[in-house]
Design brief:
The chain is an alpha+beta fold. Helices cover 46% and strands 14% of the residues. InterPro entries: AlkB_hom8_N, DNA/RNA_pol_sf, RT_dom.
Length: 377
């Protein structure tokens, strides 16, 4: 059955991808969670370059998101996306009248027929949810609604203290969810305020579904810890701790005299993958002290393995160039317009920045790296 689901998945992607919300980053070619975080930060940092501005970020949590899909409503949405009627009917039939039971130890409950939601572990579930929520978008230019499957983030770019657009979009999101059988989890939904004004005033809390939303100083957004001061110490603390824990296994392999090539492979897949997690997001803005802590892990691995390993700076440069290259090559990517080629066709136009925190973010630093690489050719 899963093989047939994959065929349907490929068919659906081919039809719907050009019509999907460009700010939906999940399960689409040349897009990743890092792209979503980088674009979110770019909107925020670009906005904060102007005086008298701040940003409010609402990290939305849904209750049992995949379990709330209404098949008939999904069929209507698929039809609007030009999905053939026969495919729509098959998906509706696939999601309707499914048998489900609960097993606890040796005890098994009676079977129940389920006609709501998508099966857990289903190949089609993530894409079906993305299609189901495709019409959930922002109407105001100053409010960005980014999605990664069921991870939804609302970013209000506030100027002169006017939060009307942001609050309107908050209310609209609640209304849209109610009309589409999605339940907002107000307990797990949190908000972060990024405000570098010298004379900032306390913000009025957001209320969703009659519940006041908690304000946090940091949040793990699509795997990356973001702090309200937009510094990366907490995120790098987490990466360093994980990498140091995995060094134990590398030392154990050394005791068993594992060949050096296999130890390098183990390091690359188990330790380096942690050190470079979301590196395009945080490296350029990280402090020398934080970078040094991560580099010390690499030096420790070099001593255990007995050979040189790629330094953190080179890993960042290669991954940034690869990520920028994919965005430049994909005109449909929502960040494609940020990489503009100069009339000469050889270099990219530099992105104007007013603060170092914006200058050292992904898009301005990636532009510099791309231009530097081209000048060497």
């Amino acid at each position: 059955m899963k093989s047939f689901e994959r065929l349907v998945l490929s068919h659906l992607k081919e039809i719907t991808d050009p019509l999907l919300d460009p700010l939906q980053f999940a399960y689409r070619a040349n897009r990743s969670a890092d792209d979503a975080v980088n674009l979110a930060l770019h909107h925020i940092l670009q906005h904060l370059d102007s005086a008298g501005t701040y940003a409010r970020i609402l990290f939305v949590d849904f209750s049992s998101a995949f379990n709330t899909i209404i098949p008939a409503l999904l069929q209507e949405k698929l039809s609007q996306l030009n999905v053939p009627d026969s495919t729509c009917r098959w998906i509706t039939d696939f999601l309707s009248d499914r048998k489900q039971h609960v097993k606890l130890g040796k005890h098994v409950s009676d079977s129940q027929l389920i006609s709501t939601g998508s099966p857990q572990g289903c190949v089609l579930s993530p894409l079906l949810f993305s299609l189901y929520t495709n019409s959930c978008t922002s109407s105001h230019q100053s409010v960005k609604l980014l999605k990664f499957a069921d991870d939804t983030t609302l970013i209000g770019l506030i100027s002169d203290g006017d939060e009307s657009a942001y609050r309107w979009e908050d209310d609209h999101l609640v209304t849209w969810c109610r009309e589409n059988n999605l339940e907002l989890n107000a307990v797990k939904t949190v908000e972060m305020v990024v405000d570098f004004r010298k004379n900032s005033a306390p913000t009025t809390p957001i209320t969703l579904c009659d519940s006041t939303i908690d304000t946090v100083e940091s949040f793990r957004f699509l795997g990356t810890i973001i702090s309200q001061d937009l510094k990366w110490e907490l995120n790098i603390n987490s990466l360093t701790k994980k990498a140091q824990q995995r060094m134990y296994f590398l030392r154990q392999l050394k005791k068993f005299n594992l060949p050096r090539t296999m130890m390098v492979q183990f390091y690359s897949s188990i330790i380096e993958s942690i050190l470079t997690s979301s590196i395009t997001i945080w490296y350029a803005r990280a402090t020398a002290k934080d970078k040094g802590r991560l580099q010390r892990v690499i030096r420790s691995a070099e001593k255990v393995i007995g050979c040189n390993l790629p330094p953190l700076q080179d890993l960042h440069a290669s991954r940034t160039l690869r990520r920028a290259g994919k965005i430049v090559a994909d005109p449909s990517h929502p960040s494609h317009g940020l990489f503009q080629t100069l009339p000469s066709g050889r270099r990219l136009r530099s992105i104007r920045t007013r603060t170092s925190r914006h200058k050292n973010s992904f898009f301005p630093s990636a532009t510099g790296l791309v231009n530097k690489a081209k000048s060497r050719l």
